[in-house]
């Protein structure tokens, strides 16, 4: 179960405006004001006498999901320190130790041939060194089946499995979550804390709830039906027995249910699930900007109305935003003919459009309104986005990373290098005119290490040839070896110093 923290106090105080009349029956209070009430709605009888019949029909299609993962753990006691390589050489190398990890969650069958929907975080190994080895699906009657991963999508936190069995399964179907109303009854079935087949009920507390976590899918059905660890991936049913949500996260200062749960709406999940079942790649539009939501202080400093627009903090190179002419400091007030608000962010609008879509934008710049048009690019994977957003600290004492090998460059020069990004440029304090490869780590036993090269140095050229890519540097290493030379002439740029040439011997 994912936990959502940092929600605004409005989530916790949403009922503060209700005043309770003491000493006066509710019906009497209404009767006294009948002459002031127009078109009064008299609700049907509230809760059903029992959820038993509905549960009996739905529960056979809700399953427990368990995974087994293999995690590699280094046996080197100096792992992550400069002494790790020396220890390995003296011991003749150490093989990593493996251990098992497990996870539990919920899911539901959506077809007679055994396709199962769950959350991606239920089956995705939480550790980068972990490998998913086995998925077991347990039916309500205790029967276990092996399942295989058909497809997953980290951005929406959805995954589809297929049960390996030649039989017909009970299944449920997606409903219309857009028709859900605040106050509607809902039922959640899942596997909280490993207690399979647990049924809880509640109401829809809010629709299209944003949690402030950002992204294209930060819109949920909020419910007070009890949801706990292990409910992830389980269904949220309406009273017709349709799945209108997939239980995904809770707000919990304590770690347990406090009556604030979040489910991915069926209208969001169903199209993605269909694509995953068909083996299709999930493609989303991408603008390529860093944004800051509008708040009171920001709006006052700009003389703007609150909750309208988002401030562009950064623009990625070679992105749709750069091509459209967006600049840092611009305020996007409207995109694709939809006003940008706290509940309708740029990320939500753009992330639900296809790459190649042309979208109009209204932008405030220096107090003037501009109209721009962008052609959306393709959104990178979540891993690529995380790497691009990582802050590069040139002063960090970072040893060589065996899992981030640069292959030939590391072997021949004793260096691990990475390509330049706008974020790294900002960290190093260099302008856009500076291009090259950035040294991420140096082997202290190499000639490069002995000559003082360090993390954060920029390799501008090798053998007088510009090197903007690792392939270009490898090509110059190969050229030196082909010519019978034992060293490569690098041109190095260090912060606050002029560039200089430095010969580095090959290993």
Automatic annotation (TrEMBL):
Q: Which GO terms describe its molecular function?
A: serine-type endopeptidase activity
User: Which leading EC class covers this enzyme?
Assistant: hydrolase
Q: Per the database entry, which stretches of residues form a coiled coil?
A: none
Q: Which residues participate directly in catalysis?
A: 121, 157, 232
- Presence of the UniProt keyword Transport in the record: no
Check the record and name the Pfam families matching this protein: PDZ, PDZ_2, Trypsin_2
What the entry lists under InterPro entries is as follows: PDZ (IPR001478), PDZ_sf (IPR036034), Pept_S1C_Do (IPR011782), Peptidase_S1_PA (IPR009003), Peptidase_S1C (IPR001940)
* Boundaries of every PDZ domain copy: 276-349, 417-496
Q: What is its main location?
A: periplasm
Q: Which reaction does it catalyse?
A: Acts on substrates that are at least partially unfolded. The cleavage site P1 residue is normally between a pair of hydrophobic residues, such as Val-|-Val
Q: Which UniProt keywords apply?
A: Hydrolase, Periplasm, Protease, Repeat, Serine protease, Signal, Stress response
The places in or outside the cell where this protein is found are: Periplasm
Q: Which GO terms describe its biological process?
A: proteolysis
- Cite the binding residues for substrate: 121, 157, 230-232
Domain of life of the source: Bacteria
**Leader peptide range in chain numbering:** 1-28
Q: What is its EC number?
A: 3.4.21.107
- Family membership noted in the UniProt record: Belongs to the peptidase S1C family.
- NCBIfam families (alphabetical): degP_htrA_DO
What is the name listed in the Swiss-Prot or TrEMBL entry for this protein?
Probable periplasmic serine endoprotease DegP-like
Organism equals Erythrobacter litoralis
Lineage of origin: Bacteria, Pseudomonadati, Pseudomonadota, Alphaproteobacteria, Sphingomonadales
């Amino acid at each position: 179960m994912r936990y959502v923290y940092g929600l605004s106090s409005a989530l916790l105080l949403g009922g503060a405006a209700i005043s309770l009349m003491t000493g006066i029956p509710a019906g009497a209070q209404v009767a006294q004001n009948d002459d002031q009430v127009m078109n009064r709605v008299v609700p049907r009888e509230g809760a059903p006498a029992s959820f038993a019949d509905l549960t009996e029909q739905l529960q056979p299609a809700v399953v427990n999901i368990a995974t087994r993962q293999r995690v590699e753990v280094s046996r080197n006691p100096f792992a992550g320190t400069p002494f790790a390589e020396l220890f390995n050489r003296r011991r003749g190398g150490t093989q990593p130790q493996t251990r098992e990890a497990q996870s539990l969650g919920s899911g539901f069958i959506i077809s007679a041939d055994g396709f199962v929907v769950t959350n991606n975080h239920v089956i995705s190994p939480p550790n980068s060194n972990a490998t998913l080895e086995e998925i077991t699906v347990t039916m309500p009657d205790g029967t276990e089946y092996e399942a295989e991963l058909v497809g997953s999508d980290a951005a929406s936190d959805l995954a589809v499995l297929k049960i390996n069995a030649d039989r017909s399964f009970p299944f449920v179907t997606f409903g219309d979550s857009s028709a859900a109303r605040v106050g509607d009854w809902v039922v959640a079935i899942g596997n909280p804390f490993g207690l399979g087949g647990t049924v809880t009920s509640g109401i829809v507390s809010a629709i299209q709830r944003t949690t402030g976590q950002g992204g294209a899918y930060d819109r949920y059905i909020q419910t007070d039906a009890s949801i706990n660890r292990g409910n992830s991936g389980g269904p949220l049913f309406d009273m017709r027995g349709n799945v209108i949500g997939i239980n995904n996260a809770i707000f919990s200062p304590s770690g347990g249910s406090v009556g604030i749960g979040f489910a991915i709406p069926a209208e969001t999940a169903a199209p993605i699930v269909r694509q995953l079942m068909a083996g299709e790649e999930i493609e989303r539009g991408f603008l390529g900007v860093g944004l800051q939501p509008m708040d009171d202080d920001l709006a006052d400093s700009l003389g703007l109305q609150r909750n309208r627009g988002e401030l562009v903090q950064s623009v990625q190179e070679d992105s749709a935003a750069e091509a459209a002419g967006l600049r840092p400091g611009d305020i996007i007030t409207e995109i694709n003919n939809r006003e940008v608000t706290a509940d309708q962010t740029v990320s939500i609008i753009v992330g639900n459009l296809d790459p190649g879509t042309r979208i109009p934008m209204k932008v405030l710049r220096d107090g003037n309104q501009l109209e721009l048009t962008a052609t959306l690019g393709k959104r990178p994977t979540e891993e690529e986005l995380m790497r691009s957003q990582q802050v590069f600290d040139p002063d960090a004492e970072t040893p060589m990373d065996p899992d981030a090998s640069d292959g030939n460059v590391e072997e021949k020069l004793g260096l691990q290098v990475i390509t330049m990004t706008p974020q790294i440029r900002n960290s190093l304090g260099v302008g856009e005119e500076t291009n090259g490869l950035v040294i991420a780590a140096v082997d202290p036993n190499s000639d490069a290490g002995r000559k003082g090269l360090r993390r954060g140095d920029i390799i501008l050229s090798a053998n007088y040839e510009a090197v903007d890519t690792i392939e270009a540097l490898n090509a110059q290493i190969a050229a030196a070896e082909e010519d019978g030379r034992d060293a490569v002439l690098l041109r190095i740029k260090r912060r606050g110093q002029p560039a200089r040439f430095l010969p580095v011997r090959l290993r």
